Amino acid sequence: MFLGTHTPRLDEKGRFFLPARFRDELDGGLVITRGQEHCLAIYPTDTFVAMTQEIAKGSVSVKKVRDYQRMLAAGASDTVPDKQGRVMIPPTLRHYAGLAKDIVVVGAITRVEVWDAAEWSSYSAEQESVFAEMNE
Question: pTM score > 0.90 for this model?
Fold first, then answer.
């Protein structure tokens, strides 16, 4: 399970250090893909495979299913963290999420999300009242 908020920085090669608490679960391999709200989603490879097997059950005769399958797969990149626990984010995904140097890495239970720091700040401030209302 992925929990917490972390603030590593991207280096000049587009790499960042995975938070130590996420490394064991992602050490064997991971998939980075587009997430909603212009963040990136990182899944352990086995979780991503299981998720895509469910998605593949959708009928390709349904346009929304085709669109989702395409967007998910076209943006996906599989990799393994290096020995120091760094992950390289491909340029196309950095561009999609608007990532520069300051990023926020968020544990989102089944996945890790990577956000531009300013976007995360704006999003989390906006969602705070929604979150409070859901708790009622």
Answer: yes
